[in-house]
C-alpha cells in the first residue's frame, strides 16, 4: 500500500524508489511501535517527508536541514500556542524520540542520501534478480 501511496512505478528496477519505500515504510512502522495516534502518525510522516524534501528538492546541507527541522519542531510541547499547528500533538518525550529517529535514519546517512538524489548517473539494471 505504501508503494501505491508514494506512486512508485519502477520499484523493481529503481534503486532510488526502493530506498524511498524502505525509508517511509521503516518510519511508518517505527511510529506504529511508538503507539502514535493516527494524527500523530500523519504528523510524523510529514516530518519525514519534510526532511527528505529539504535534501532532495531544496539541496539543503545537513546543517541547514537540521536548522529547518529545529524550526519545524520548535513549538512542540507548548500548550497555549497554536502557531506550530499539528506538531503540538507530540509530547516532549515523543519529540525527542522523533529527533533521535531522524538522526539515526536520515542524518547519519546524509551523504548517502545526497548521492542518491544528486548523482548524475544511474546504473542500468540487467534483470530483476
From TrEMBL:
Highest taxon listed in the record's lineage: Eukaryota
Signal peptide residue numbers: none
InterPro entries according to UniProt: CLAMP
Segments crossing the lipid bilayer: none
One Pfam family per UniProt: CLAMP
Protein name: CBCO1 protein
Organism listed in the record: Rhabdornis inornatus
Amino acid at each position: 500500500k505504501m508503494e501505491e501511496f508514494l506512486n512508485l512505478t519502477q520499484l523493481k528496477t529503481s534503486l532510488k524508489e526502493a530506498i524511498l519505500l524502505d525509508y517511509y515504510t521503516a518510519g511508518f512502522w517505527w511510529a506504529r511501535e511508538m503507539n502514535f495516534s493516527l494524527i500523530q502518525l500523519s504528523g510524523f510522516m510529514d516530518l519525514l517527508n519534510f526532511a527528505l524534501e529539504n535534501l532532495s528538492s531544496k539541496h539543503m546541507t545537513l546543517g541547514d536541514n537540521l536548522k529547518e527541522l529545529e524550526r519545524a519542531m520548535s513549538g512542540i510541547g507548548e500548550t497555549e500556542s497554536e502557531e506550530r499547528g499539528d506538531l503540538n500533538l507530540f509530547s516532549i518525550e515523543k519529540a525527542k524520540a522523533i529527533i533521535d529517529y531522524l538522526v539515526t535514519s536520515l542524518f547519519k546517512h546524509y551523504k548517502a542520501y545526497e548521492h542518491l538524489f544528486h548523482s548524475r548517473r544511474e546504473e542500468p539494471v540487467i534483470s530483476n534478480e
